[in-house]
Amino acid sequence: MGTFQIIISLYFLSITPYWIHNINPQNMVSLSKWIEEMGGRKRVISKLINSSSFFIPEKEALNLQNFLNVKKVERFKRLSENLSPLNIQELVYEDYLKILNVNKVHEKGILGDNVKIGILDAGFDFIHPALKHLAKPEYKRILHTHDFASGDHLFIKFPLNVFYEINYNQAGVA
């Protein structure tokens, strides 16, 4: 059985094993207390996206359906590990450069040497074999990261490996 992470939100979020939709924000405090009383623990509360996430025993997840204004609890569907290899030649990076107006920066003579830039993105998977070297302190290329969605520092490893279910070698990415 084990413990699984859930997220409670007014919005649909797609990274955790249980989705809880359409809960009244005024009931969030009492729901948090109820989850902790039944053995779950709060992970983070985000005012930015008006959501909370918890680690909770799987057998208790379906009981959330009966709690106050929770209208739906849905089990997370895992991706198949039988993924076809990634063809890197199919990726087109030029479109991204145009979207970010990189050409305008290059026209000003800024080509990347000793230039500090900031990127707001969905995040970097520093556990992925292709990126894990970037998190090393001696690399000194990434000065700071922050996860605006959950408030976590991105270099902290979670006690449960709930986010990284894909075997990257089998996915053909490594």
From TrEMBL:
Alphabetical UniProt keywords: Hydrolase
Matching PROSITE patterns: SUBTILASE_ASP
Regions annotated as coiled coil: none
GO terms classed as biological process: proteolysis
InterPro entries per record: Peptidase_S8/S53_dom_sf, Peptidase_S8_Asp-AS
GO molecular function: serine-type endopeptidase activity
Superkingdom as given in the UniProt entry: Bacteria
Protein name from the UniProt record: Peptidase S8/S53 domain-containing protein
Native source species: candidate division WOR-3 bacterium
